[in-house]
Amino acid sequence: MTTVEARPDVRRRPVRRPQRSRRVTGLVLTAAVLVLLVYLSLAVGTRTTGVTAVWDAVTRYDPDNTDHLVIRELRLPRTVIGLLAGAALGLAGAVMQGVTRNPLADPGLLGVNAGASLLVVLSISLLGVTSALGYIWFAFAGAAAASVVVYGVAALGRDGATPLKLALAGAAVSAAFGAVTTAFLLVDQATFDQFRFWQVGALAGRGTDVIAQVAPFLLVGCVAALFLGRVLNTLSLGDDVARGLGAHVSRSRGVAAAVVVLLCGSATAACGPIGFVGLTVPHVARMIVGPDYRWALPYSMLLAPCLLLTADVVGRVIARPGEVQVGIVTALIGAPVFIALVRRRHVSEL
């Protein structure tokens, strides 16, 4: 009589997805890193200060103390606007990539930057606007107008605004607006001198008045974007499957586009066009939590300010006593990171 040994269970267990607790822990750790970067943004610069000076400048401000004056009047506003703009760009990039199902989607692809730039140039050349506060509303209006034009053009036809038509319409509108902007700059040297300081993308030189203007739009946009996770998950399945699940694809895509306009328009108006933040950060978030946008969105909201504040601090350190604007540093940091992501992960599936 032979005995039959129990065969080991050779069935492969399903791949374990990141657990909720791990995701929450990751969010907490990311928030802790962001707090550290906020401190560095307040302390590091041409004149580096210690922890005590930063704490006293925030809680017991003395206008006769030079360190307190630098921290409160110069570094605190740029840190706050870095937090707000970073969160907006990260969320906008994630929503834009989700709604277009295009891993390379960013504000430049859908014409947001081109529209904002064109209206800023027109405001300088025709109306004589010269302040950052004055650029805000024109940049916001240009970004909104460009997005409406892109979505309207893409929506023409029987299939509506498909991801491919959105990308093609965005590229066409960006090229057209860019040509008009260049034409104005070539014939007006004074406008070019004013415009180039806004176009480079910077957190410096923006005071509390700029924050007060854009903060309501940024906060509303961020809250609205965080509620789009389930919608983006449905759209990521494809239009036919989404319709089969009962989703109103055109309406969902329109709401998401409106949120992107609100976020990108406000951030671009406040800081100028800053590239690679909205393009790179959503990929990092999806590498951590997978394709579930209910988690990718909050991760993008925290990771993007980390990147923006890091770039701002690095820009102050590498060119002392001057500084390199944050838009240049994000391009230098973001481009290699994005290339590495593409080479290693072949771009996360959307």
Automatic annotation (TrEMBL):
Q: Which domain of life is it from?
A: Bacteria
List membrane-spanning regions: 21-42, 76-96, 108-129, 135-154, 166-187, 210-233, 254-276, 296-314, 326-343
Keyword annotations for this protein? Answer: Cell membrane, Membrane, Transmembrane, Transmembrane helix, Transport
Record membrane topology: Multi-pass membrane protein
The record's section on InterPro entries has:
ABC_BtuC-like, ABC_transptr_permease_BtuC
| Membrane recorded as keyword | yes
Q: Where does the protein principally reside? A: membrane
Q: Where in the cell is it found?
A: Cell membrane
> Which Pfam families does the entry link to?
FecCD
* Family that this chain belongs to: Belongs to the binding-protein-dependent transport system permease family. FecCD subfamily.
Q: What is this protein's name? A: Iron complex transport system permease protein
Q: Which organism is it from?
A: Microlunatus capsulatus
Q: What is the lineage of its organism?
A: Bacteria, Bacillati, Actinomycetota, Actinomycetes, Propionibacteriales
